[in-house]
């Protein structure tokens, strides 16, 4: 079994809870209230701040230029099309971009800061991979729904489906699969632990979003 499949299979219950969630089902069938999405996007914009820094750190740690290039292209997408999606959505939903971090967003920021501070490529990859792979998993079954939804719901699906995004996940998996055999048992355990905590935080983030993050006005 690929190391990344093994990592996922060990945390299957949390993975399923995070990727087959009432929040994303409501998002995809268009019944998610605008306020619920607004609160989620405000908190997720804080996540993106930490994610950009973590991805930049992984680029800096990549073993060779060829390993860094797909990550750098993905970084451009997040700071380009995805960032613009956030700003357009805040405008359409009539909320500011800035909001105080809720505990679930703060926990993610802390985890990403920890992965960054480790200085270890495999630790950074573990957290990046969970974030992107779990989003590919929840969004892919809804790919054909995007067009019928308001853009602030539909484009969130589009950004996390399709060949390009699947390629990002394939690349992150490949990077971690390749690093894995060179790690000591202790290093492998650290990766597994970060992977699991990231999955738990994805689950907690959707739980909190579904209950409703407070919306900053
Ligand atoms: C919390 C969270 N996890 C993953 C992604 C995908 O990048 C996101 N936007 N937000």
TrEMBL record:
Annotated SUPFAM superfamilies: Heme oxygenase-like
Residues at the active site: 202
EC number in record: 3.5.99.2
Highest taxon, organism lineage: Bacteria
GO biological process assignments: thiamine biosynthetic process; thiamine diphosphate biosynthetic process
Keyword Cell cycle: no
Protein family (similarity comment): Belongs to the TenA family.
GO molecular function, a single term: thiaminase activity
CDD domains membership: TenA_E_Spr0628-like
Domain Thiaminase-2/PQQC: 10-210
Catalytic reactions of this protein: thiamine + H2O = 5-(2-hydroxyethyl)-4-methylthiazole + 4-amino-5-hydroxymethyl-2-methylpyrimidine + H(+); 4-amino-5-aminomethyl-2-methylpyrimidine + H2O = 4-amino-5-hydroxymethyl-2-methylpyrimidine + NH4(+)
Record key words, sorted: Hydrolase, Thiamine biosynthesis
Residues the record lists as binding substrate: 44, 82, 132
Coiled-coil boundaries: none
Entry GO terms, CC: cytosol
Official protein name in the record: Aminopyrimidine aminohydrolase
Protein's pathway: Cofactor biosynthesis; thiamine diphosphate biosynthesis
One Pfam family linked to the record: TENA_THI-4
């Amino acid at each position: 079994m690929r190391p990344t499949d093994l990592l996922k299979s060990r945390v299957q219950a949390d993975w399923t809870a995070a990727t087959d969630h009432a929040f994303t089902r409501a998002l995809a069938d268009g019944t998610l209230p605008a306020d619920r999405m607004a609160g989620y996007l405000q908190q997720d914009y804080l996540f993106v701040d930490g994610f950009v820094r973590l991805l930049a750190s992984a680029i800096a740690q990549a073993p060779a230029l060829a390993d860094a290039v797909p990550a750098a292209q993905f970084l451009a997408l997040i700071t380009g099309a995805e960032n613009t999606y956030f700003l357009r959505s805040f405008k359409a939903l009539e909320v500011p971009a800035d909001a105080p971090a809720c505990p679930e967003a703060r926990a993610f920021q802390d985890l990403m800061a920890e992965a960054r501070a480790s200085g270890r490529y495999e630790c950074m990859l573990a957290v990046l991979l969970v974030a992107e792979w779990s989003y590919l998993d929840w969004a892919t079954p809804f790919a054909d729904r995007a067009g019928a939804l308001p853009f602030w719901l539909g484009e969130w699906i589009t950004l996390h489906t399709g060949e390009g995004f699947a390629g990002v996940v394939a690349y992150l998996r490949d990077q971690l699969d390749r690093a894995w055999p060179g790690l000591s048992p202790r290093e492998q355990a650290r990766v597994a632990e970060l992977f699991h905590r990231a999955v738990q935080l994805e689950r907690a983030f959707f739980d909190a979003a579904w209950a409703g993050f407070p919306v900053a006005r």
